[in-house]
Amino acid sequence: MRPGSAPPVRQPGAHAVPLLQRSCLFLRSHSVALAFAGAVLSTVPAAAGDATAVHPEQWPKGASPLLPNPAIEARIHALMAKMSIEDKVGQMIQADIKYVTPDDVRTYRLGSVLAGGNSKPPGHPFPDGSHWRALADAFYHASMDTSRGGLAIPVLFGIDAVHGHNNLVGSTLFPQNSALGATRDPQLIHDIGEVTAQELRASGISWTFAPTLTVPQDGRWGRAYEGYSQNPALVAQYAAAVVGGLEGKPGTPQFLDAQHVIATAKHFVGDGGTHDGKDQGDAQISEAALRDIHAAGYPPAIKAGVQVVMVSFSSWNGAKMAGNKALITGVLKERMGFDGIVLGDWNAHGQVPGCTNEDCAVAYNAGLDMLEAPDSWKGLYTNTLAQVKAGTIPMSRVDDAVTRILRVKMRLGMFDAGAPSTNPLAVKAADIIGSPAHREVARRAVRESLVLLKNHRGTLPIDPRKHVLVAGDGADDISKQNGGWTLGWQGTGLTNANFPGATSIWAGIDAQVKAAGGSAELSVEGNYTQKPDAAIVVFGEDPYAEFQGDRSNLAYRPGNDHDLELLRKLRGQGIPVTAVFLTGRPLWVNREINAADAFVVAWLPGSEGEGVADVLLRKPDGRVAYDFHGKLAYAWPRSAAQIPVAAIARGERPQFPYGFGLTYADHADTGNLPEDPGLTLNNEQTGVYFTRGKPAADFVLRLSGPHGGATNVTAMPSATTDGSLRIEAVDYKAQEDAREIRWSGTASVELVAPAPLDVERETNGDVLLVTTLRMDAAPPADSAIGVGCGTGCEASVPVGTQLAALPQGQWLRVGIPLKCFRAAGANMSRLDRPFAWSSHAGAQMAITDVSLSTVADRILSCPPPGNAP
């Protein structure tokens, strides 16, 4: 099968394929994966001189499926004739709701706002539909207010609804995309798009930054779960299905009607092929691989009528995509015929050489129509306006961009629709958001996406009339079963109470077992009051998003064998054990598979955990209610060091090939899998500097007195040579898992990294430096938290006054935005001291952890501009 041809699609309800025939299919799928891997590795440019040469004539030729609408084009022309340069520049900028107000939109005539992963309606950290509708209305009315001059042009409101409307409390949350790839069911993908569109409209929002059409080739990438498959043909097939579900079918009355939303194909192009799977990294591949693998989803998305394409953070052979005119204008707009909006990613233009977040004519001239400038919009507006007036950005380019933006707004009917809250679905939102019909679509998606890797001696399905133990930290954790991009960017800091209407995996199993007359018992640690007839252990990855999920190998929890030991313990007690693995990507879990009698990949299944019970449990009469249908959309590694796509190209076999997946009819066993990880399994915790009272691996805890003398802490207690600072062990949750620090003079405590750290991405992403601490005595007002970035490069932020307001004697997670340090002058790309705390006599506190995070109990504010020390 060549890239671009359609993969086999499972029809819902199809009969099981005989095992011998299925084995042939698995071998054929393995060959498909081999062909894709070979395309990636064998076409790396041999000569750097032509590594970024683009040949548009070699790319697929396409056109918009929408014929020019004379009425819309005439309306655009008439409006453009009335618009000032200021009006036009405003349309080309998108600001984040955390950093822009409706009054700003009224003043600057901004064309678009977005709600980033951690941005919410003011005062509502867990917003429901009414909160989103009120905010959407406020921005809409501001954009239509002409009392200060300008024209009434409705503002677009975009949001990352990537597995359902995942920023809305009470919404229907679907399995993440890596799970949906296993279903091989385009109609299901279409239905998911429709449900997502309806719940968005019900909350007053009409634009989603989805679908993600990446084709991940390396599971170490923190965004791998956002891709449907390593197979470009499957991604291409799904692209048309999901766009059709979100937007409706072009040429029909349903296209972009009141029940549909604008879709965004992202991230153009190559984000899934970066070297070593690094987020926002460099895809070091040929133009042919970029075209045939990584761009496979774009022609069908354009043909399906997608209205926005978002350009990637990443680079292609060293050239940042946000400045690549040959690909954006030459290929996407001219060759593929895309006539909608080309949008930049979150401050991605600031990474283009010669640009900053507030100044990037290069990106506009490359073909970007709208720049996503969440917190930098005001400076970008000022500079862009000056560049347009100076001719640095030609008026022809401005007019093209604004024409595209207005065309999409008019296709959506925004000029005639009225306020978002008047949408028919918004009026009856209570019947739409999280409705039983929508949740049933999600539950079906869970059932279809489950992949069975092992079923020793028919361990599954389980008789629900028996006594069933459900164990593991993922059993009753709805946040964990959803993963990142869930009620927040990273999907962390949540409880089951934040998911009204949702069902955990435990709750689904418990309900069905009790209904059948059996009994179920929940114990995270696998303890029980009555020996169970069967045990189900639910475990897996904790939530993460984007670069926070990047890793150096594919070992599951390297250095932490807690889940493995739990499986072994229960199986050693003679209990049949079924492992249910929560993950966004293929990982090396051979030891865990060996330790279980049955092994099920549940991916990140979303809000409807009972879909897992539907497949794992028999009916009370002994019949099978639902069989396993899922087939791997990604090959799984044979060792922690193996990257399957690359390994296949070298002639190596993965542990489980693309397309593998057992059914109950197979009664197959994996045998004893190899347990050699292929590398040393060290505990890998990215962004953790100090944990459980101790520096992270190779970090140094250092005390410095007033005269520059430094003491490396090697034992407890410890102190500076002059006694100005003293540190000793104290208890937090365990014995001596925290450190108490007392100042009797001017001194500082700092963490020294083994090598300079690059946290520029984290800084742009609104990540916090979080310290879990207990204030025991109010610090002086000029106490400061800082960072160091080499000799003569450091920055600190005064925090004494804010910390003095914290309750004393209480443990809290206190965060300070990394942006505060950058604003104070730090070079965030080379931090050698990622944490430093300076204070004076009388200050006293205890700390247990220091790390990068997006969750804190208290977030300290940056000093006003110009007041940084």
* Count of DSSP strands: 32
Please tell me how large the radius of gyration is: 27 Å
**Assembly status:** single chain
Give unreliable regions as ranges: 1-48
Broad shape = globular
- Please tally the helical runs, counting DSSP H or I stretches of 4 or more residues: 27
Amino- and carboxy-terminal Cα gap: 62 Å
SS content category = alpha/beta
Look at the structure and give the mean pLDDT: 92
Structure notes:
This protein is of the alpha/beta class and 869 residues long. The strands form 6 sheets. Strands 18, 19, 22, 23, 24, 26, 29, 31 and 32 form a 9-stranded mixed beta sheet that branches. Strands 12-17-16-15-13-14 form a 6-stranded mixed beta sheet, with helices on both faces. Helix 4 links the parallel strand 1 (93-96) and strand 2 (112-115). The chain is globular and about 75 Å long.
